[in-house]
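Inverse folding, one chain.
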């Protein structure tokens, strides 16, 4: 019968092997001294684990140098990864905490073509029913709070491409002025002319210089005006966006060659 110390040692060995594999993958290759320094694992253990990982086909030593690199076999480890499941599990606690602080529903919005789509939400947990049929909702980039936040903080080349696709030439200058105002304000704000008459503010979730997703907050202006919403809710909204940004950065470090999926199925038009 395996004793508790033996089980703990086995678990630690597995964790260390995964740490080594993740470090080699994130750094695109590393020497033994670099792995010792970056992981804190003793050199004899690093050498032993590298030998095991090499025998299993997950790493190899570059014949032109002393660097260890991952092999194509590591792709199999991520083949079962489901982004939507990850996003729901990751954003769920963050959105629930945000709801408790502000009392209004929020959505994680991601770009899909020339619109921005709901990918996760705390609306089911919110006592305020705003657009209960939110699954798959999509919003116009140039008029919605989330779309404006995306356009305001995405890279310039991407912004130009998206504006060309979704904004008539005669309206482009007006949209650019609104995006300038959005950056000065610090959040996107929904066009009041959009139907139905609900309000929304939104902030970007950044991944380096790109927008990974947008976090919005939806409210009823007749109950609480946008100025009060911004004064009361903007700080917790930004805290939640920062927590999501950390999660996306961790995901990106594990899959540096991949961009987070942004496509979404068709759905009802969102406010």
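Residues assigned per position:
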């Amino acid at each position: 019968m395996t004793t508790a110390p033996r089980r703990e040692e086995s678990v630690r060995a597995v964790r260390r092997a995964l740490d080594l594999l993740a470090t080699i993958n994130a750094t695109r290759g590393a020497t033994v001294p670099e792995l010792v320094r970056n992981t804190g694992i003793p050199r004899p253990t690093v050498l032993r684990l590298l030998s095991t990982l090499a025998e299993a086909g997950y790493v190899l030593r570059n014949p032109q140098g002393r660097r260890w690199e991952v092999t194509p076999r590591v792709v199999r480890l991520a083949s079962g990864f489901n982004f939507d499941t990850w996003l729901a599990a990751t954003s769920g606690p963050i959105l629930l905490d945000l709801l408790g602080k502000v009392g209004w529903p929020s959505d994680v919005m991601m770009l899909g073509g020339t619109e921005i789509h709901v990918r996760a939400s705390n609306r089911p947990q919110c006592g305020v029913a705003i657009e209960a049929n939110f699954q798959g909702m999509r919003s116009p980039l140039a008029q919605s709070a989330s779309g404006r936040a995306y356009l305001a903080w995405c890279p310039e080349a991407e912004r130009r491409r998206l504006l060309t696709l979704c904004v008539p030439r005669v309206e482009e200058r007006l949209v650019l002025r609104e995006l300038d105002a959005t950056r000065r304000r610090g959040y996107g704000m929904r066009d009041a002319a959009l139907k139905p008459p609900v309000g929304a503010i939104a902030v970007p979730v950044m991944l380096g210089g790109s927008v990974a997703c947008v976090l919005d907050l939806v409210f009823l202006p007749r109950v609480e005006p946008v100025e009060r919403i911004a004064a009361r809710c903007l700080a917790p909204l930004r805290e939640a966006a920062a927590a999501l940004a950390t999660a996306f950065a961790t995901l990106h470090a594990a899959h540096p060659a991949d961009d987070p999926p942004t496509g979404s199925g068709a759905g009802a038009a969102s406010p």
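Residues 262-271 have pLDDT under 50 and may be disordered. The longest helix spans residues 226-254.
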